[in-house]
Amino acid sequence: MKLLHLLFRNALLGHTGLVVSRLAFGAMTFGQGELVPGVTNNIDQTVADQMVKRALDTGINLFDTADAYTGGQSEIMLGKALGGRRHDVIIATKVGFRTGNALTDTGLSYRHIIASAEASLKRLGTDYIDLYQLHIPDPLTPIKETVRALDDLVRQGKVRYIGFSNFPAWKAALMLGIQKSKDYTRFVAAQMYYSLLGRDLEHEIVPFVEDTDIGILVWSPLASGFLSGKYTREAPVPEDSRRKNFQFPPVDVEKGYAVVEVLQEIAQNHHASPAQVAIAWILTKPFISSVIIGANKMHHLEDNLGASEIKLSAHEIEKLETLTQPQPIYPGWMQSMGWDGKVKAALDS
């Protein structure tokens, strides 16, 4: 089997010396049973072992999971699949979604974060978590309580680095401010949704992470398979598609069809697939540390790995950029007015 050499092979994660592969492996599909209502996973340990081995063979060193994925099965299976290679890799997991029946089995309280980290350690079969991430904002818990819990986990040696996922920039900034003022461990990573059909990240999160030197890890670079090329006007809802019963993340379907047509055109020029081109486009972004790829079939993983070999031309990048450019939202569309014309002309000269 051909060994791929990852394009732009490695990057530093945020303001750390931690070197991560530009493609990461996401284990969300591991396990057998309901992932979320409408989506059922069906990957056993044998297939999980094969996928992890393949990812390791290509040079991937970042593996992402969460305590809520398939009732904890994802963490268990990932830990077993990594086996003796555990200390060669970076394990990232997350906390925040419901993991049990008790009222306290959810959220970002001190109690739940500490308990969840300890449970994740057991499921993963390891004595430390490399990157521990807040999976979703908690509308109830004071942020001071949450950041204190994360700092304690680091000081106890159970966690090495911390990050957040799916947070608005203002809330992440507030938390970072507390971390700095209290000399707590700071966020180094933001795991966020980003794709050609979902570029909202560019409004607030990208300027924030660039200013604070936080690395972005991308989830769902294919908009949950929409950009794979199998969703078309002729076949809007393929029978075996994940999006058939779970329209997530939301996309503008008509715009999606237009994007897929361009992806197919570019893919032909590279003897590649639309999915590979969509991922390759994300890899051109300087603010991205790593793109998380996952699969529920081995051939899907093989195809996604091929994105590392695609080098898009400036013209192809511009074509995709223009087609998918997000519309400015207020107060964004007022920002350019801050440039005084006379001052700008003087500086430009």
From TrEMBL:
One Pfam family cited in the UniProt record for this chain: Aldo_ket_red
Record-level GO cellular component terms: cytosol
Keyword Zinc (UniProt): no
Keyword Signal belongs to the record: no
Protein keywords: Oxidoreductase
The protein's name: Aldo/keto reductase
PANTHER family, sorted: NADH-SPECIFIC METHYLGLYOXAL REDUCTASE-RELATED (PTHR43364), OXIDOREDUCTASE (PTHR43364:SF18)
Lineage: Bacteria, Bacillati, Cyanobacteriota, Cyanophyceae, Oscillatoriophycideae
Domain NADP-dependent oxidoreductase: start-end pairs: 22-323
GO terms of molecular function: oxidoreductase activity
Domain of life: Bacteria
